[in-house]
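Hey all, sorry for the wall of text incoming. These are the two entities for the joint prediction.
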Amino acid sequence: MNPLYIVLPVAFQLFTAVVLLFFWNKTNLQRGLSVAASITALALAAWLMAAVLQDGILVMQAGAWEAQFGISFVADAFSSTMVLLTSLAGLAVSIFSTSGIRSARVQLGFYPVFHLLLMGLNGAFLTGDIFNLYVWFEIIIIASFVLITLGGAKDQLEGSVKYVTMNLLASAIFLTAIAILYGLTGSLNMADLSIQVANIENRGLVNITALLFLVGFGIKSAIFPLYFWLPASYHTPPATISAIFGGLLTKVGVYAMIRVFTLIFIPDEFMLNLLIWIGGLSILSGGAGALLQNNIRRVFSYLIICHIGYMIAGLGLYTEVALVGAIFYLIHDIVVKTNLFLISGLIYKIKGSYNMKLLGGIYSSFPLLALMFAISFFSLIGIPPLSGFWAKLFLIEGSLDTGQYMVIAFITLGSFITLFVMAKMWLEIVWKKEGALPDKQSSTAYLAMPYAKRFALVFPIVLLSGALLFIGFGAEFILAVAKQIAAELKDPSAYLGAVLKRGTI
Amino acid sequence: MRSLIFRTAAGYLLPILLLFSVFILLRGHYLPGGGFVGGLIASIAFVLHSIANGIENTKKIFKFHPRILMPMGLCLSLFSGLSPLLVNKPFMTGLWFKEPFPVIGMVGSALFFDIGVYLVVIGVVLTIIFTILESI
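and here's what came out:
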């Protein structure tokens, strides 16, 4: 693959959004175009991934300005994997939305904004410039502001106020940190920063800047003391939109954190302990929150926080094995969280409620769907040989290597909490006899839907469950990718060499 | 706002402001100006016209809803960014015609990017203003 083409996953999503803008009022055409474009985007991302795995790191200097001065786009194994996962989740959500999003919302511009969001995500993963990363974050949050308020239901607006406020604050902190970093080094290119920051003598200022980045990305990825906006907002928009939020938006914060703390700021002892404790407390507080909720989407929201903790703790351990675990968890978590929110949307379509106490009887009326749910639920808990298990195995191995036994305690406790929550959910939703639903007709409304509409609701869940089974049973392939990513993160010389084109690094 | 003086003046201001906006657009490569400011000035021309003559009359100037300018402008900008890929240069590289054009001067892909921005800004501002004016 010509390195010039690595911008295509970004440009193609923008192109899709532009084409969709031409057909503002033609809702059915928009739905069809979106699915077709998402399939193409997935093919593009797979092509990029294959090229990166074969040829190594691909670099494009935008505008033909050399690195340090221009904006570099870098596709290494980590970013191309994230682009591929984004496209996969994007395809699933796009198919689901063909019957999960009402025409009224499509006419308000759901699809163009959705593809702009995907463009922002791809851009954030592919950029090699810290300020450009900020710009992509802005595109992501502006697109997500529109998506979360789209339709303007009352609780949606209430949730979006919290979401918008916290994310704007995070952006301001992130921008401040970039400004300080630029003042210290005079550079914004991440590869160049990696070299320059290591040589700065004023370590105190460097550490403060690193903490500012931690807070900025921490708010976006909802880590321990900064997560309160997430469970207050993610359950308010339609399930389709929560799926893309839950699957990808917090993960882009984690991606940025892993990238910045392995490339630019190599954490010292204090920072590593801080990351481990933040990770552990995220696991506990997210899990504790999930125990108390009855709204299934709020349960999933708290579980996002809980499982972000695993990745942050993995980063805090900072050995190659632990990073393999964190990356593997990230790969698994994007797929499983998107799928869980889609499942919650499907349950709502079938039963007309998100309340666990009122739901029930899925197994007796839809046994095959219940099987689909089981795959995601058990993958989330990490029952071997499903996908969550492998990631935790490596995280535990990493913590044994470094002697951080606290992390093992946190991980095990978090897994038990997840097990309890998911078992409770399984009992309440799937096995229990149907409760007294407020709106009994909606159950028949699902059965009365045309076959194509029902297919559009179920197929993405089957697709993502298939991906989960592949991650679980094809763990060897995923592990090879995760190992390559972790090796590249631990030793960024290949990245630096590719971006800066210097032989002396 | 239906004063005779204002209405007459707005009729003359519309072409002058549009011409001025194109001037600002073309000037913008090395000097202050560019697509964003030019687009704002052009949309001010239409807003002034609609305040003086009523929104219905302004809409008659357009044969289409100004919303369509947004994707058109984005399309132009995107393709001016992607066009260097055809000659095997990175995304967003400036490509220039060898000879200057009369009146306009040197023309490069950056100009088409700016024209795209110009159209998007007109589209966005007029969509917002028209929506607000219609709901009053």
